[in-house]
């Protein structure tokens, strides 16, 4: 298991899961042979500092795509405490294609008690065991 926590940004910008998903793809490339050799599902754990503005909803939108996604801007770290981020609509976005070697993406929330949410990959070479997910987690595509 590996974790990728997005560090806070010191600049204003678009709130996006792109960096987090690029790091996920790099982890899959790095560990896929090891998981395959042992015939175990490859699960990558991800999370983001609250100052990045990236949430589970941001990741879900990237995983599922959207016909009219919203783009959210935040003006700097901690600005969500001063004023809410600005959101506007843009054109369609295709879903992020989960690599076939990735069994599931595990989201670790930044707030206590650090709840974990599983996003299984329905196209995984070695699937994530369904009994490993808890009842509080949404299945992929829901």
Shape: globular
| Main sheet summary | 4 strands, mixed
Strand order within the widest sheet? Answer: 1-3-6-7
Q: Level of helix content?
A: 10-25%
- What radius of gyration results from the CA coordinates? 16 Å
Give the rounded overall mean pLDDT. 78
Helix count, DSSP H or I runs of 4 or more residues:
2
The tally of beta strands, per DSSP, is 7
Class derived from helix and strand content = alpha/beta
Classify the oligomer. single chain
SSE order = EEHEHEEEE
Percent in strands:
25-35%
The parts where pLDDT drops under 50 for at least 5 residues are: 135-142
Distance between the termini: 25 Å
Structure description:
With 142 residues, the chain is α/β, with parallel strands linked by helices. 20% of the residues lie in helices and 25% in strands. The protein contains two helices and seven strands. Strands 1-3-6-7 form a four-stranded mixed sheet, with helices on one face. Strands 2-4-5 form a three-stranded antiparallel sheet, with no helix packed on it. It starts with a strand and ends in a 22-residue tail after the last strand. Residues 135-142 have low confidence and may be disordered.
């Amino acid at each position: 298991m590996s974790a990728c926590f997005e560090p806070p940004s010191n600049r204003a910008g678009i709130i996006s899961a792109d960096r987090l998903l690029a790091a996920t793809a790099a982890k899959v490339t790095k560990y896929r042979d090891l998981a395959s050799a042992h015939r175990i599902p490859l699960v990558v754990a991800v999370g983001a500092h609250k100052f990045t503005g990236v949430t589970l909803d941001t990741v879900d939108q990237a995983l599922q795509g959207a016909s009219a996604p919203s783009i959210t801007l935040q003006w700097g770290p901690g600005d969500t405490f001063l004023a809410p981020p600005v959101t506007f609509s843009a054109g369609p976005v295709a879903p992020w294609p989960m690599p076939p070697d990735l069994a599931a993406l595990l989201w670790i929330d930044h707030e206590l008690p650090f709840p974990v949410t599983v996003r299984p990959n329905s196209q995984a070479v070695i699937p994530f065991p369904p009994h490993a997910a808890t009842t509080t987690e949404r299945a992929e595509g829901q």
